[in-house]
Amino acid sequence: MHEPIRQGLEEFLAGHPAPAAAPEHQENIQRHLASCCECREEVEAMRLHQSLLRELRAPEALDPSPGFYARVLERIEAQAAANSFWSIFLDPFFGRRLLYASLVLMMVLGAAVWQTGKGPAMDASNPVHIMAGADLPAATGEDPGRDRTVVLTNLVSHGEAGGVQSLPVSSD
Q1: Which of 20, 36, 61, 135 is the most buried (most CB within 10 A)?
Q2: Segment 34-70, tens digit of pLDDT
Q3: Is the pTM above the cut of 0.85?
Q4: Is residue 2 a contact partner of residue 32, using CB atoms and an 8 Å limit?
């Protein structure tokens, strides 16, 4: 680009009126552009770039719209509420797994109760049943050695009567 164009190119492209002291400078630029094809092509390319840059310019209002911050806070609170401990139970996959695990646990507990409920709770060999018998001598609690002997004798004698082999009783 030639020298006469460089000196006032910005004002010429902006379309500002030339200062009062330089109206002839604008006329010189116009005459030079009319005669010089190279400078005219560069100025036209610069005008095209200038118009493209104006299209890319950001809009004047860069402030968020009214209520923007309130909406952001509401969304944050909604997400925080959705991530609470109790929201796990509302998840369908977790609820299904919890349901299946509960059913399996109920089946296992039911089978355990069903298996243990077959025999009588108190049979003749149970020591509580033996001690509850009325025909046995009572342990008075005055002499612990005698009471021990009475209890063991009762157990041994009941075991022999029921056909169960008992251990020999030693007297201390």
Answers
A1: 36
A2: 888 888 888 888 888 888 888 887 767 677 788 888 9
A3: no
A4: yes
